[in-house]
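Work Package 3 (structural annotation) set out to generate three-dimensional models for the target panel prioritized at the project kickoff. During this period the team completed the workflow that converts sequence records into discrete structure tokens, so that structures can be stored uniformly alongside our sequence database. As a representative example, we reproduce one entry of 424 residues exactly as it appears in the project archive.
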Amino acid sequence: MALPPSWAWVLLGCASASLAGAFNLSNLYPPLWQESPGQFSDYGVENGKYVIDPWVFTDRMGMYKILLNRTATYFAKFGPENEQNLLWGLPLQHGWQYRSGRLADPERRTNCGYEPDPLCISVDSWWADMNYFLSVLPFLAALDSGILGTSPNNVTLLPPPKDQMRFCYNVSGCRSSFPDTMNQWKIFFQYMQSPWSTFEELLKYLWDAHTTSLKDPPKIFEDRHTYYSEKEANFGDNWAVAVLYLAACRFPTTLIRTYKFQKGLPPRILNSTDIAPFIRDFTELQNIVLVALKMIGDVNRVTGSLTLNIWKILMMTQTARKEFLLLFENVFESFPTCVLAQAAGTEWSLKVGRQKEPHRSSVLQPVALLRWWCVRDTEVTTPTLTNDEAGTWFLIPKAGGYRQEEREGESGRLCDQLASETLI
């Protein structure tokens, strides 16, 4: 028996709720989420107004946190623990930008984004400037719609140290300079408050607002490309184009799905010598995503809007979007995270894909290459080392609820690629 289309997102929501049991959701939050303000009273007050500096990472992240907290009640009907809140995509994307170094001064002429000022967001960063329109403007639109529990007149946003005229800082100013963006976000927040809101329609209004937010910034900040390598500048443009394709299929920007999707994004700024799919310190998935984004960008530049318009036509029905989402997620699931453990003295290394992260343990004895796994569904974020009766050390992932395939020696086709690499 065929299910009505309206059940599609109900089933997907149930799947996400079930999957959430396999995660400690707090492990998926963006960096410094706990340290960021979660209510207006966490910000400083000056002349009776809350003062927010969008050029400090935790202040900008705090705006997202307030949005997530204040809108949680409207998404509760779609799943527990606010995991189905569609606004998660914004702070997670901002967190990736921060973690990958894309919010720092791209020319390193200042300490902004580096020690001793690691939380500074550089106005020279193309990524930071683009993100401003996906953080400050949605926040001001939410204030204007009344869902944040305070008046827009009670909030002051600080300007950047230069290029102040390229930005807006309050509801009236943003309405005047970017009326379409403010209007689309207000429509989203107003519909969200409707007792008859549906997940599918929320996705439509969210992506309408998201894509509208990105119409003006590429032209305003085109000069920022000169601060980056050609590879990074092209990646930024390709990513902006790819967002339009994600919007057409209404990718659900919930917590778990966005977290998983972002594993395919490059973990650092691209340099002039990076050639995907042969970037050694990127995972196979990250290399392939870069190749795919380049293809999307190149085709879009050659055909204009023709390819995108065809894609929009293909994605017009909810059934087509649902089928594409399942295919999309299956592709990402086909790239397991390979974990390789090795110990020597008091040091050992944990390798996730091609990224090495050093750890220390005082209980280790010098041993040779041990044992390795292909792990799906989650990263091993808090592993422990233990040993069996024969004294052989094992890497035991503490996170539970995910599938695990054990591989020993050189067996395991998916992990053979890592077998010859030295980690320590």
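The mean pLDDT is 80.
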